[in-house]
Amino acid sequence: MTLFRLVAIAFGHARRRLILSMAAALVAAVAAGGVVYLIGDSTKRSDELLMTLNSPGVRSITIRANSDATDAELLPSRLVGNIAGLPAVDRAVGLSRVQSATTPGVRDAQVSVGYFVGATLKGEPPYELTGGRLPTVGEAITSASAAVRLRLTVPTASETSVDDERIPIVGTFDAPGLGAITDLLDASLLSPAPTNVSGYFVVVLIVHAPADVTPVINATAELLREFGSNRYTVEYDARAAEIEALVAASGRSGARSTAIAIMAIAALVEAAVAFVNAVLQRREIARRRALGFTRSMVFGALVIEGAVLTGIGAIAGAFAAAVVLSTDHTGINLAQPLAAAGFVSFIGVLAALPGGALAAFQDPARILRVP
Amino acid sequence: MSALVVVTDVGFRYGLAERVLDGVSATFDEAQVHSITGPSGCGKSTLLYLIGLMLRPANGSIEVAGRVTSGGRDRERALVRGEHIGFVFQDALLEPSMTVFENIAEGLPLNRPLRRYRAEAAALLERVGLGELRDRKASRLSGGQAQRVALVRAMLKGPAVLLADEPTGNLDDTSASVVLAALFEYGRQPGHTCIVVTHDQRIAAATDTVTRLEAARE
């Protein structure tokens, strides 16, 4: 009964001082909404960054034989096979030295692009087939830009010329995220390697995660030791693992710092509102004390009022932020706005304590102007 | 006839200021209306607030409804005030935005259910001539009506001791007579008493006992 009456008193007072009540609820709404949005947006951006970092481009390692290497000095198939067999390697492709492909129909134009013979050594081909079919030995697929430059119509009824040998084009491909060789492949033709290739000029590896880049490079160096470390170069994005760790750690902790700052400011504002509230109703409280309210009842009514107002505001703000986030981010967990609303309500209760104490310990006789 | 309020050798001062009351003793029996009079600044209202447990005496003791309450913790004093003491202030002290009934209900201790007092509140309002105004906002009441509502608020819980501080000071004669009649009727019931602070000698003369205070100066 007592609690029920206290809640009714708190609601009644909140209704009577509507502007102050709305201010308290609004601050809570902004705080909870801000925190939910901040953390949600930060998580989303971190996830996006991690997704970007996890792209094949960041996970790729390009091993390239020296440019002046003879056919006997290419990366040996046997060793390359061992490298491709490393557990952290998801995909591997071995490519020949680049040759020149030209357009048979317009020789006068002197248009030429790169031409690779390559073998998929592990996993799916690292390039994406976008039309037609995968070629067999003696056929080729072309990148979109190479097709344009060579004035080819793909995927059918096209062919190109490589060292006077005519090669049918059976489809197109994209080569995103293949590290150092991406640009070159983007403007090239690609044909399957024959089974008797003894060596590759370039090997592209795509590892499972950015963190695998360094271990795979170390293992590759070990496997190629007999080949000679001065006979090849390795290209990779050295920042990948470092960036991944930084994003995972600092992205969220930055948002956390801002969220804590928002909470602190909200607590100060809520405390100020509660204080003003207590001062404004000094006479009302003194009257209640004269009518028999104990200090704890006065204190309780004010704290309940603070809790109710911040609770309503926090729930509204948190769910509004969740709705905004959910419009372009599907990963919103209902527990997150609930937790934020609960925490802001708790802050609201804490912030109401000084005002409640001020009200509870004021001298009613003095306020009622006892002579 | 037993004493409901016993004041024994009570002294009081506000902080370090000069003493307001010194060595005051008085007994207020049940079923009587008592008045406290005296010159301005003699401590009439202070004595009333001491009896009402709003202030603590510097020395001496005060017994209300059989309980020695001059000491004790604030909580105990507040609970005794809530159960056994009703206040009527010179200013009605109503909440303007609340209705008459809501204001009256505020006088009930929190542990008492409002629904049990609706009929009694209506009867008391009828008794003071405000039966039709139960749901009117206090802001729309005249001064006399507000004071009558304050009186009903003080009486509704049935306190043993009803304290009134210049209850008719701001009222016209008609309202004053209604308020005084209700106060006197309440105070003269068995188990109740009413103590009125007044500077109006006509009111004092109508009460059963008069306690006259002289200015106490060190």
Please describe what this structure looks like.
The complex is a heterodimer of chains A (371) and B (218). With 371 residues, chain A is α+β, with helices and mostly antiparallel strands. Chain A folds into 2 domains: 2-51 and 244-367, no CATH class; 60-236, no CATH class. Chain A contains 11 helices and 13 strands. In chain A, α7 runs parallel beside α10 and α9 (295-326) packs antiparallel against α10 (335-361). Chain B is an alpha/beta fold and 218 residues long. In chain B, the strands form 2 sheets. A 5-stranded parallel beta sheet of chain B has the order 6-7-8-3-9, with helices on both faces. Chain B has a 4-stranded antiparallel beta sheet with strand order 2-1-4-5, with helices on one face. In chain B, a hairpin with a 5-residue loop joins β1 (3-13) and β2. Chain B is globular and about 45 Å long. The N and C termini of chain B lie far apart (36 Å). The A-B interface holds A 1-2, 5-6, 12, 16, 283-284, 287-297, 364-365, 368, 370-371 and B 41, 43, 45-46, 49, 52, 54-55, 74-75, 78-79, 81-83, 85, 87, 89, 93, 95, 97-98, 102, 106-107, 109-114, 153.
Give me the secondary-structure topology:
The complex is a heterodimer of chains A (371) and B (218).
Chain A: H1 2-16, H2 18-53, E1 60-65, E2 75-76, H3 77-84, E3 89-95, E4 99-102, E5 112-122, E6 128-132, E7 140-143, H4 144-149, E8 158-162, E9 165-174, H5 182-186, E10 188-192, E11 199-200, E12 202-207, H6 213-223, E13 232-236, H7 240-280, H8 282-290, H9 295-326, H10 335-361, H11 364-367
Parallel strand pairs in A: 5-10, 7-9
Antiparallel strand pairs in A: 1-12, 1-13, 2-11, 3-5, 3-12, 4-5, 4-8, 6-9, 7-10, 8-9
Helix pairs in contact in A: 1-9, 2-7, 2-9, 2-10, 7-10, 9-10
Chain B: E1 3-13, E2 19-29, E3 32-37, H1 44-51, E4 59-64, E5 67-68, H2 74-84, E6 85-88, H3 100-105, H4 118-127, H5 143-156, E7 161-165, H6 173-187, E8 193-197, H7 201-206, E9 209-212
Parallel strand pairs in B: 3-8, 3-9, 6-7, 7-8
Antiparallel strand pairs in B: 1-2, 1-4, 4-5
Helix pairs in contact in B: 4-5, 5-6
